[in-house]
Amino acid sequence: MLAEEFEELARVAPRAVEGLRLEFLNGRLGVKQQPDGNHGCIMEWLTRSCLRSRPELWLHRQGLKVQAARTGRALPDGALAHADAFVGHGEWADSDEVLMVVEVTSYDSDTNQRDRVEKPRAYAETNIPVYLLIDRDACEITVRSQPGGVRYEWTQTLPFGRTVSLPSPVSVTLDTEPLKNWATATLKA
Fold it and tell me: Rounded to two decimals, what is the model's pTM?
């Protein structure tokens, strides 16, 4: 499948199946789970934390062109960039202005491959400076930086509750104590 064919499918599919969110990495079609309420709280916490430190930046929900030659299409949970970085872009934007991408693990069978293997590589290939993984399964936060082509050269993993300093160009410090509540809270049906 070509990226253009995927874009057409991604444009049509959500109308046929409510909540369906598609991604295209390594030439493969992937389905992204609809976020739950705890996921939403985590993203709101992160949005507020970033805004307090860097009010000129927004945590966007924007589809990105990723990988070598921008042939992949990813839906990060957040893309930190200047407020107007995606003005005039369509559903899939170039990632040149993205300072950090964020993924929050979901409770599905594909999260290990997608969030811990495929996406870090795709974002490193795209030269996005920082990748932040909020891992609800392990109750850890992982920061990756210094993209080196096929991987990030620097990685730090800390348990929830610790203070995390996001490296330049993000330069934000996060108190991750609140994540303990949202990672372990029981989801209501």
Answer: 0.89
